[in-house]
Structure formats: structure tokens, C-alpha cells
Amino acid sequence: MDEDRICCDLMRTQLKHRCEQHPNPHDCPDVLVIHSPRFDEYGIPIRDAGASSMFMRFCPWYGASMPESKRDL
Q1: Model confidence at 6, in pLDDT bands (50, 70, 90)?
Q2: Cα–Cα distance measured from residue 54 to residue 41, given in angstroms and rounded to the nearest whole number
Q3: For residue 19, what are the domain limits?
Q4: Could you give the CA distance from residue 12 to residue 7 in angstroms, rounded to a whole number?
């Protein structure tokens, strides 16, 4: 995750959040945004007991465009 590409402090705070009770961010109810380094994607976790997330194209706080996904590469 390239910190220079993060659009706002709220997004930065969310992406840096680490929970002592839930090592897996998909299990933590306090995690609102996750980053997938493999595809360079940002998403909102789906609480389905798995690792699903909804891909984000824009920052939920400021509406700035998120980086292009590398999923198709």
C-alpha cells in the first residue's frame, strides 16, 4: 500500500487499524476498509465468515477516485 496514494486521514486511519482480538481484519467489526495488496484494491469487508469484500472505486469519505485495480493484469 502506497501511503502517498491514500486520499485522506480517515482512510489512512482505517487502513492502519490493527485489532488485538481479531488478527484477521475480515473478522474485526471495527475494520471498515481493507486493502488487497495482490490486486492493489480497496474494499469494504463483507461479514460472511470469509474473506469477501466489496470493491471500492471511490473513497467513502471524500469521493476521491481509488487507484485502478490490477486484477486484470
Answers
A1: confident
A2: 10
A3: 3-55
A4: 8
Give the strand pairing for 53-55 and 41-45. antiparallel
Sole residue written with cell 495482490? 38
* DSSP-derived 3-state class of residue 3: helix
Residues found in the chain? 73
Segment 20-67, tens digit of pLDDT: 999 888 889 999 999 988 898 999 999 887 788 899 999 999 999 988
Q: Is residue 63 part of a domain?
A: no
Q: Which stretch of DSSP H or E encloses residue 44?
A: strand 41-45
Lowest-pLDDT range of 4-8, 42-46, 66-70: 4-8
CA–CA dist 48, 39 (Å, integer): 21
Please state the domain count of the chain: 1
